[in-house]
Structures are given as structure tokens and as C-alpha cells.
């Protein structure tokens, strides 16, 4: 039953085999055994896809309910102190996922020695087909768009307006956000393309600026490094630019102004039952992650 449900959720036998850590022939053999046992054809096989038959649709819904019920019974029998085991597949943003999130991840693995984690770094904010991709949960920067996900905010990240000192050998230093429109820009396409809303921390004034970026990238490190090279102005997470500002490689432009803070969420699909590995990860991240955001916020350039 589990193999059949995983085939349907994953969309192919090959994807199901990968998620179940087995081979495609093994998955095919299990499906044939199930169909033979039931005396039913569950899937229609085409060149490029698998389609549920009418019997397959009925079985899929019933099997999912049975598997959830069994997981619930198993969890109750093991008790609330069940130690998680197995592999957890997590999606995290590239920059944050290889920097600030590694310490909490290491603590989770230390706390639960029977766990292993697949730590997938991806900046595509539209990648939310969790089931088909075999993803258990995601750490997501920015407001989530998928209403079918449980979204728990665990912090937020301040952003700074930055530029290389070399840029102002050929351009005047901006005195107001309106001056930024006359400068070349590097856009971080996952969060801004050709316009930004900026707010003054002292007066509360809000203004919107528009610009034509000379470079667009979906990677925070690439954006920062391009700005260091003098390609243009950028807006990035404060934590990633602090050292370069301290070393004089970057200038924090208009320190009384900034773009809105970016919220950070834990995302995972709605379900009636969550396995211990996911429940414990969610609990650990809720406990550990808020603490790493306060130091980031406290270091924001003024």
C-alpha cells in the first residue's frame, strides 16, 4: 500500500524508488503483487506518465487513510517520547542554508543521533510540490504564496542598501532615496526586480523607487559580490554584508532608510499525522532559530 501511494504522490515509479531508497524494478514488482492480490488494475501506464484507474482512485484514498491511521496507532504505542529515526528532507535557501542555519541543524542531529538529513539548498521560491519532490519541510525567506502549507513564522531578517565606494568615483553620493534611481543597480530577483519600497526609521516616511538593473541574479552571494565589484547598488540581508562594510569594501547607503524586513517561515504540508522526525525538527527549529535572528537584527547598521 505504501509503495502504491508513494508512486501516485511522486508521479512516477522512478521518483518513488528514489524516495523509498530502492530500485525501480522493485517498485514495479511491488505494484504488480498488489494488483494481483487485489485482482484490480490500479494504474494505466503511458509513455510519459502514470494515470489512476477508477479502482486506483478509490484505493488511493482508502490506502492513504489506512496508512495515516496506522502511523497514528504506531506513534501512540511508541509514546510521546519516541526517538525519531530515518531521513528528513529539508529545503532551505542557498545563502541562509549554508550559513546561519547550519548551527541549528547540527544541534538537531546531535540531539537525535538516529536521524539523517538531506539538506537541499534551492532559491526557487515557487518550488513547493513537496510530496512529488519528497520534501518534508522548508525553511522559507519571504511571504509564502502556497495556501496549502502550514506556515509558522520563526523570525525576520533586516536588509541594508549597499554599494561599493568605487561606484562613487563616477556618481554623486545619494542624499535621498530618490537619488538611487539615477544609479546602476544589481537586482536580487527573488525579492526585487525593478522597484523597492523604502522606509525612514526616524520619521516613518515611506517612498518607492524604480530603477533599471544592470544585473539580475537569484543568488544573494552573487548579488553581494557584484556590488563589491562596483556593478551597482543592491539591497541585501544585513548579516551577509556586515563584514564587507566593516572592511570598507561596501558602504551602507542612507542608513536611516531600509527595505522591509523579510519574514522567515517553516513550511510543511497539512496532514492529520506528522512523523516523529518532522515533529521533532519543527519543535527544534522553533526553539533554536529565533535566537539566531536577534543577533542579526542587533548588528544592523544604523
UniProtKB/TrEMBL annotation:
It comes from the Bacteria. Keywords: DNA-binding, Transcription, Transcription regulation. One of its GO terms (biological process) is DNA-templated transcription. Residues 1-53 form the HTH lysR-type domain. Belongs to the LysR transcriptional regulatory family. The keyword Transcription regulation applies. This is LysR family transcriptional regulator. The keyword Lyase does not apply. CDD domains: PBP2_CrgA_like. Gene3D superfamilies: 3.40.190.290, Winged helix-like DNA-binding domain superfamily/Winged helix DNA-binding domain. GO terms for molecular function: DNA-binding transcription factor activity; sequence-specific DNA binding. SUPFAM superfamilies: Periplasmic binding protein-like II (SSF53850), Winged helix' DNA-binding domain (SSF46785). InterPro entries: LysR-type_TF_proteobact-type, LysR_HTH_N, LysR_subst-bd, WH-like_DNA-bd_sf, WH_DNA-bd_sf.
Amino acid at each position: 500500500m505504501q509503495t502504491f501511494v508513494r508512486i501516485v504522490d511522486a508521479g512516477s515509479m522512478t521518483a518513488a524508488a528514489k524516495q523509498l531508497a530502492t530500485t525501480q524494478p522493485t517498485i514495479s514488482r511491488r505494484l504488480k503483487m498488489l494488483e494481483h492480490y487485489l485482482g484490480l488494475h490500479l494504474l494505466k501506464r503511458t509513455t510519459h506518465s502514470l494515470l489512476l484507474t477508477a479502482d486506483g482512485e478509490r484505493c488511493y484514498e482508502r490506502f492513504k487513510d489506512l496508512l495515516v491511521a496506522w502511523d497514528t496507532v504506531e506513534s501512540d504505542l511508541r509514546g510521546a517520547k519516541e526517538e525519531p529515526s530515518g531521513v528528513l528532507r529539508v529545503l532551505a535557501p542557498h545563502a541562509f542554508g549554508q550559513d546561519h542555519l547550519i548551527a541549528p541543524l547540527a544541534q538537531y542531529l546531535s540531539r537525535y543521533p538516529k536521524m539523517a538529513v538531506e539538506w537541499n539548498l534551492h532559491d526557487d521560491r515557487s518550488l513547493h510540490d513537496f510530496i512529488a519532490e519528497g520534501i518534508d519541510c522548508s525553511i522559507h525567506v519571504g511571504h509564502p504564496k502556497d495556501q496549502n502549507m502550514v506556515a509558522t513564522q520563526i523570525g525576520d531578517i533586516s536588509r541594508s542598501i549597499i554599494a561599493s565606494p568605487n561606484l562613487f568615483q563616477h556618481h554623486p553620493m545619494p542624499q535621498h532615496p530618490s537619488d538611487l534611481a539615477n544609479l546602476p543597480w544589481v537586482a536580487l530577483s527573488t525579492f526585487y526586480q525593478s522597484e523597492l519600497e523604502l522606509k525612514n526609521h526616524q520619521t516613518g516616511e515611506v517612498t518607492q523607487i524604480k530603477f533599471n538593473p544592470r544585473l539580475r541574479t537569484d543568488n544573494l552571494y552573487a548579488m553581494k559580490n557584484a556590488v563589491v565589484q562596483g556593478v551597482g547598488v543592491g539591497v541585501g540581508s544585513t548579516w551577509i554584508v556586515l563584514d564587507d562594510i566593516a572592511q570598507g569594501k561596501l558602504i551602507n547607503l542612507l542608513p536611516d532608510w531600509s527595505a522591509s524586513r523579510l519574514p522567515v517561515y517553516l513550511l510543511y504540508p497539512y496532514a492529520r499525522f506528522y512523523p516523529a522526525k518532522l515533529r521533532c525538527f519543527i519543535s527544534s527549529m522553533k526553539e533554536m532559530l529565533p535566537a539566531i535572528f536577534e543577533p542579526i537584527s542587533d548588528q544592523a547598521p544604523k
